Every structure is written in C-alpha cells, then in structure tokens.
Amino acid sequence: MERRDFFKKAAVTAGAAALGSSTLEAGTTHQPVDNRKPMNVTFPEKRPLIVYSDRPPLLETPREVFTSALTPNDQFFVRWHMPDIPTFIDPDKFTISVNGLVNKELKISLNDLKTKYEQVDVTAVLQCGGNSRSAFTPTAGGIQWGSGAMGCARWRGVRLKDLLDKAGLKKEAAWIGFNGSEKAAYYETPNFIRELKLEELDDHVILAYEMNGEDLPYLNGYPLRLIIPGSYSDSWVKMLSNITVTNEYKKLFFMDIAYRVPDNETEGETPEKKFPKTKPITKMNVKSIIGYPTNGSTLSHKSEVVVRGVAWDDGHGIKKVLVSLDGGKTWKESLLDSGRLGRYAYRAFRFHFKPTGYGKVKIMAKAINNLGHEQPLSKDIPWNHGGYKYNGIDEVTVEVV
Amino acid sequence: MKKLLLTAVLAASPLFAQISAKGEVPYVAFPVKMGQGFDEVQANCLMCHSFGYIINQGKQSKKFWRGKVDKMIVHFKAPINKQSADIVVEYLFEHYGNGKEE
User: SS3 for A125?
Assistant: First the structure.
C-alpha cells in the first residue's frame, strides 16, 4: 500500500520537475571537464582508459588519442546501458535473426554473413549524443563525459538492406526494431531496444563484425553491431541478436524519454522551464577536438609546434578547420588530411606554429562544414536538460617556457 | 556517390578466431564515503549499476539527488520503498552534496 502511494508521489515529483519549479538558476555552458586520467585497470582488450563505471562498463578515450583519423580499437570508448552483458559468445554458434513482417524469417550464422552477402566497408565516427555533457551547468542528466565519448573506425559488414531484401518485407512493414544482448538486472527495467523508421534507413546502414581490420572488440559489441553513419551512437545497437520488422512503433524509454532535445530552433531550454516538445537527437552536428597539445602541457619557446586534431559532422563533410592563438580574435586555416576515408570519417587537421613569446597560450579550433555550419563558442551553446549535442569550439591552454 | 561511401570488398574476408574464451570485466573499487545510510545504498542502488555511476554526477543539491532516486523508481522501476529512498537521499546529500537544498 505504502509503496503504491510512494510510486504515485514519485511520479508527481518528476512531473513537477518537468513543468519547472521555483529555482531561478540559468543554464550555462562552458568547456567540458578535461582533467580525468586513465585508470590503471585493464578491461578486456582495452588499454587503460578513463573509467566512469565497471557495471555497466563506461570508458572514455583520453584527448591525446585524437590526433589521427582512425581511433585504435584498444583505445576506443565504451558505453553500455545495462549491467548484464554476455561475457562469452561462440562465433560458430552465433546467429542473427530477422523476423516479424517478412516473407521469410532468417537465422543467419556469422560465417554465412561473411560469405553469402556482399561485404562492404565504411569509415564512420561513432559519438555518444552525450559526449562532452560535463560542459553543461547545472548538471544535465547522465554520465558526465569529457570530450572522449567518441571514436572513428573502419567498419566492415553487410548492408542491412541486403538482409531485409533477402527476408522480403511485407507491405505493412514500417518500423525495424533492433535488440542487443545486454540485459537489465531487474526484469521491469526497460531494455535497451531501438526502433528505426524504415524510410530513414539507407544503403549506408550496415551490420558490422569487423572494426579497423579486427573482430569487433567484445566491449564494442562483438560479434555484430549496427553502424548508422552520421547518426549519434545511441542507435548503433551492440551485440545485435535480433531484427524485428513491425507496422507500428512501441513505446520505449530509451527512445521516448532519453536521447531527446528540445524541439525548437536553438534546441535549448532553461533548467526551470523545460521545453514541452522534444525530438530525437539523430544526426551529429559539426565539431572538432584538439588532440595535441593537451591542456597544461609545456611547449619550448621558438620550437616548431604542430597542433593536431580531428573534425567531423554528419556526413556533409568538413570544409575547413580554423585555429586561433589569440582568444578568437583572428583565425588561420589549418591543413586537412586528404579526406579519402570518406565523408563520415574524421578529418585529421594539423596547424604549424612557432611560439615566439613566453607564458600561457590558448589554442582554439573551429570546424566549418560544407553547409557552412560552424562550431559556436561553448558559452553560446544553449543548455538542454539531457546535456546532448555539445559542439563548442575546443580550447586547450599550454605554457610556453 | 554510394560507391564512394561504401566500398564493396571483393575478397571474402578470412574468419578470425581472435576471441576463444572471455575474461571477466574487472571490478573497480570506487572510493566510497562510509557513513550512515550507506547500507541502504548498497541494498538499493548497486543492483543495476556500480557506485561509480552514481558519484560521477559530482556534488549536487538535495533536490538533485531526490530527483535521481525518483527517476530510478519511475523510469527504471527500481523496487525501493519510501524509507529507504529517503535514507539514500540523505546519505548522498551528506557525502556528495553541495550544501544547497535546491
């Protein structure tokens, strides 16, 4: 009895929070936290990374890794939602099922997937929608990531479309549900399931079994995961076990409540007054990160410094990355790599300079994409309660000695 | 355009047998501030995630911690009764609080 009452009360409090309470704190945005260090604990197939949690595993890639267009598998960030993930999967026994509104249900082994379908490669950035969430004050809901909840890899697999064609979609088919193998510890906790609208899936969506030429690491979704180039990673279901075609959308916590931003032009709101209408985060915005030098490093006076970093967007492509050494008063163009990894990949940039003075220098990087969208200053990014889609101009401060 | 993005792979890829048996995810001993109420945290909050997941939020107001505990109950169906929830909020505010009620 008492418990039922409490549930009711809790629901009311949550509702009140949504409508806004009396606090008059404005939301502000700043550079994300950048002082966390890798922990000296090794997770399976990983080098030491920044650790937020062991159950579920939540590991962040340190800034200095982002100097090249591909992120090594053993330094690639890790994000699971549920504590219970299989610790062993037998590749000879594993199958992926396609069922629901299809003419022929499929159960495909890993071997068949690798030999009976056309194999394709795509290099794409995988970034959590909450990457850099620690930039938001007051604290936005979720893990307080620095800038390393992301990476870029070459993924190999088969097109989702080829599997669906093989199964044959029925006329009413409209949604596709993806199930991973992670399980909640408590049976009533909503599972992490994704549903995608059929019409939003294109040829670039693949089921990948390989990452940078190796099997997917266990913590990145072995043996098979969804790759949706250009979209945030909440839809890139890991340890994919089942694909179900349906005609209607089911209500799902992780789609209806999490991973959403205010549905208005700036995608902003205030902590005391949440915007009532929300939309899914879907496509990534334009962003860049400086990998070298890192905050607090020392550079020698009159040395030849090459600043390096990476820039990306949702696939429109990076036009240029500008660097400023004077707090944003003047900007100079950096050199971009060839771009041969394709428009969904990181573009590595580099910028040469010779520090002629002494003392602190702030290095800033700003990417501009082919649509002309450019990164705003961090303080100009509107706050949102989920702490999603931060893409402020990156800054590192170094000491010239 | 399509060709540029997804390069078809011609040769069938070799089958890797990189993973033959799997080790465990290591346990991480997150620093815990011991104090009154921690036993309720242990009993109610560590079944779905580690302590690290909780303290990563940093120092927060009482209202913030109350909101998180409510979120666990409403959205994630955590089976926690009112007394325990209150004790957990007090514990978190005492040890991971910023001193502000709101």
Answer: strand
Give residue for tokens 């501009």.
A368
Task: Decide if A200 contacts A71 (C-beta within 8 A).
Answer: no
Contact A160, A113 (CB under 8 A): no
Amino acid at A71: T
pLDDT at A89 over 60: yes
Q: What mean pLDDT is reported for chain B?
A: 83
Whole-model pTM? 0.90
Domain coordinates of chain B in residue numbers? 32-102
Which CATH superfamily does the domain covering B32-102 fall into?
A: Cytochrome c-like domain (1.10.760.10)
Q: How far apart are CA A17 and CA A273, in angstroms?
A: 9
Query: A6, B78: Cβ pair inside 8 Å?
Result: no
Which residues of A fall within a CB distance of 8 Å from B74? Answer: 7, 10-11, 14
Nearest to A156 among B9, B56, B70 (CB): B9
Instruction: Read off the pLDDT of residues A249-294 as tens digits, 9 standing for 90 and up.
Output: 776 655 566 778 999 999 999 988 889 898 888 899 999 999 999 9
Exposure string of B64-77, with b = 16+ CB inside 10 Å and e = fewer, is: bbbbbbbbbbbbbb
A48 burial via Cβ count (<10 Å: 0-12, 13-18, 19+): middle
- Whether residues B19 and A222 touch (CB distance < 8 A) is answered with yes
Is A41 touching B (CB cutoff 8 A)?
yes
- Beta strand A206-211 with A278-280 is unpaired
Ranges in chain B, pLDDT < 70: 1-23
Q: Å from A187 to nearest chain B CA?
A: 9
Residue A189: which of B18, B23, B77 has the nearest Cβ?
Answer: B77
Q: What ipTM was predicted for this assembly?
A: 0.82
> How many residues would you count in chain A?
401
Tell which residue, A178, A209, A224, has the closest CA to residue A86.
Answer: A224
Q: What number of CA atoms fall less than 13 Å from residue B44's CA on the CB side?
A: 25
Q: What is the pLDDT of residue A182?
A: 72
The Cα B56–Cα A240 span in angstroms is 28
* Residue entry with tokens 């088969």: A158
